[in-house]
Amino acid sequence: MPVKVLDGGGERLWRASSPLIALLVALPLMALAWQAAQGSVGLWSHIAVHVLPRASLNTLLLLGGVGALSLLIGTGAAWLVTAYDFPGRGAMSWALLLPLAVPTYIVAYTYLDLLHPLGPVQSALRALLGIADPRGFRLPDVRSLGGCIVLMALVLYPYVYLSTRAMFLTQAAGLLEAARTLGVGRRGVFVRVALPLARPAIAIGTVLVLLETLNDIGASEFLGVQTLTVQVYTTWITRSDLPGAAQIALAMLLIVVLLVGVERYGRRRQRYFVQQRPRPMRPHRLRGAAAMLALFAVAVPVVLGFVLPALHLAWETAIRLRQGSGLSPQLLSALANTLQVAALATAVTLAAGLAVAWALRLAQARRRARLQAISLRVAGLGYAIPGTVLAIGLLSALSWGDGAIDAVMRGFGHPPRLWLMGTAAALVLAYVLRFLVIAIGSAEAGLARISPSLDQAARGLGRGATGMLAGVHLPLLKPALAAAALLVFVDAMKELPATLMLRPLGFETLATWLYADAARGAYEEGAIAALLIVLAGLLPVVLLARTGTRLAHEGGAA
Which of 18, 340, 76, 345 is nearest to 198 (CA)? Predict the structure, then answer.
């Protein structure tokens, strides 16, 4: 029999906060549609004929190439380190996550410098071949669609690897052994049993890769690939055409909807049932050439996706520091700006995510959680929206907000001014909407592990909704919220598209500092900023690696 829940004013405020936060996430999308409708018919036709075909084709080719290559690398590496035992397997199982620390625009920036005709790689090859003239020997230009696909896949495949390996670790060994007793070879077990069972995890990882690819602006622009994301930025910043940018952004939003829809449609009828504590598979021991080949296969993406870029950045940074031209006042200012906006965005994001998850918990206790459940889903849409699309929508929404605030403030004698647009507040708001799903997911998962009996006991002692959250749940939620804070903070530090479009005039972060250096070809000057971003990105990777190691140990003990 359910315990009667007293509805105080505090609880009503908590439950009302969830729809309000969801509305705040949906508002930029509504503003985007409104702004796109402001364009003339001639503008629509011009974009449809001269912009969308080429940009859409490049975007779809990029998505297809990066998705396929990431799926191949991520799934293959996950199976090798799970199903086989070879020297270095333990180290490689977590090292395969390291490329996640390198944003796509940094790997493009690094390889443009490494593979430049006068860069270290081609210079060393010419010296080895005895060729003095740079025109006598040149590698294929990395500034191409193919180069962009390879470089982006090298840093995005861990999304597929992480989800797929977790699925392989939890698969029951009995199913795989049954296939072996029926005469199916190891390759057949992988193709006919393990791979179909891991399909949901592969699909989720691949969709994350595609969303990250669609959100990219730096790597695509550095490597000369005119995608829809680049066109949105160019149309707004270069041509000052907000309606045109909004129309292109709507085309990107359609791709996002199709990606999510295809992923869900592909899994609509699939159900997977395994025993409660499945016995994990015993990895097959490889020896000799087979072991070395397996080690080589999993080491290549780690070396190309993390080791080489990190070493090059460290080397360039050491040179600049030794020359005494490294930490300029402008770079220190960019670092301070990055830390400040990332910290503020993290605090607001955690508060909003906790509010949404807590409102759902309170509503579930009253068996009236439909509105809060819908609000939670809407509030989590931000991560699926590319940063450029979110920024264009926010520009219109913020202009409405500025108009309303200005009308009120002029009544108090304040002169007209922009209160939100062109301020750090707009940047923080973009980060909050973009990464809110991380905080919501962590808070919801943490609350799910807390027994409802604690809620009932707290209410029996006279605690209201706020007192119950502060005194009972928050202490238990600290690990989940700390992990979410780390992920949000690092993602905010690395975010480039939204930062480029919404930052105040003269306001630089590490990401925009690096982008500006690469745009003018001064690669050596951005090495320190790039290295700082990579070092910050290592923090969540270490957290993920520890989680994966714990999962593997728990699976082995099951």
Answer: 76
